[in-house]
Amino acid sequence: QRSEGPMPAHLRGGVLDRKYTFEFDVGLWTLGTVQVLKDRKSGSLKQCKTVPKNSFPAARDAASRLRILEELRHTHLCGVDDILEDAGRLFVISEKCDGGDVADWTVRVQEEGNWLQEQTIAEYMRQALIAVAYAHAHKVYHRDLRPSSLGLSSKMPDAVVKVMDFGLMGVIDPEDNALQQNPSPYTAPEVMTGFGRVVPGAPDVWSIGAIAHSLLVGHPPSQDEGAWKVGSGILSRRAENDGWSERSASSRDFVRCLLQQAEDRPTA
């Protein structure tokens, strides 16, 4: 829930307050809370991911390791602009996407009574995969991709996708404890069972497939079906009563290709 006001009392006068003014709280994310700030010098809005160090021991010395993410710059990545910390919290500052994210877009389109166009979904997935391929080439992995991870540059149909939060999970929660305790419907099965690092990039590919599944038919794949079942025919057998009859064969093939067992998935 969005709440506006001055910098919260516990942050006033601290490292965050010196460089930014508080705009509003956004809510929660996997490792903490999200705020929108304004840069005191440039006046530009920023997104701040706040991580409590007492909840994630690796966060206590993560700042120096996270600064390498500031070097990752790509059209389809939401770049990390600043890393700050105090005794109890880690702050990851990144650009704010003016169009919200794909989760917001989905709700907006559906509230307007419109159908998610397959061509738009395909373009968003293409751009997201470009970002994934770039990050993976630099040995940086996401592990927690979901529709809200895909930022949009505007609210127009031709918005550019900018993937947020690449590399944060691997540094702050290297054992995937948070994801195993509270997985999203887009979390790869092997991450939940503790084998998510056997094929490092595979969880992100699964998540892109699960996001595409959700956008195409209105819900992510059922986790209890298992990757092998989805890949071997669940989509085609349930097409008539599961929304797939309204979508193209190529869209089903795309999703099926990504929702394989980890070692059988393509790379981005």
UniProtKB/TrEMBL annotation:
Keywords: ATP-binding, Kinase, Nucleotide-binding, Serine/threonine-protein kinase, Transferase. GO terms for molecular function: ATP binding; protein serine/threonine kinase activity. Residues 20-268 form the Protein kinase domain. PANTHER family: SERINE/THREONINE-PROTEIN KINASE. This is Protein kinase domain-containing protein. The lineage of its organism: Eukaryota, Sar, Alveolata, Dinophyceae, Gonyaulacales.
